[in-house]
Amino acid sequence: VTYRFESATADNNLPAEVLSLLPQSGTYTTSSSVAIAFVPEAPMPVEVAVANGTWTFLGYQEVEEGSNLTFVGKWVFEAKQDPSPQPQPAPTPQPAPQPNPVPPVNPGG
């Protein structure tokens, strides 16, 4: 029995933190008259946080490759969401400064 992990997210390679959870390969025997049910346990933890997001284990897919049985563990990546920028309040418009007013002319005085 062999195991491998694959990314289910395009353009994202599995980090070492996920690959370190890969089970050790082993051997098993089969008889043509007996089917052996062998389901590996999910790795622990099933979520691995990395700097830019989180990898989540989806499950194993059984693949028979000749006489070898391979379980392919699929992981999906979810990127951290950047915090939404908070809108800055618009500054309150101030009236434009006026030049010094000219004093009224007193024609009668």
Give a structural overview.
Strand 2 (47-50) and strand 3 (53-65) form a beta hairpin. A four-stranded mixed beta sheet has the order 1-4-3-2. It has one helix at residues 16-19, and strands at residues 2-7, 47-50, 53-65, 68-79. It has one domain (2-79). Helix content is 4%, strand content 32%. The radius of gyration is 34 Å and the shape is rod-shaped. By secondary structure, the chain is mainly β.
Unreliable residue runs: none
Number of strands: 4
Overall body shape? rod-shaped
* Total of domains: 1
**Main structural class:** mainly beta
Cα distance, first to last residue? 113 Å
**H-E order:** EHEEE
Keywords:
single chain, 109 residues, mainly beta
Task: Please specify the SSE layout and strand pairing.
Blueprint: E1 2-7, H1 16-19, E2 47-50, E3 53-65, E4 68-79
Parallel strand pairs: 1-4
Antiparallel strand pairs: 2-3, 3-4
Biased composition (Pro residues): 84-109
Region (Disordered): 78-109
Pfam family, one: SHIRT
How do you describe this structure in short?
With 109 residues, the protein is mainly beta.
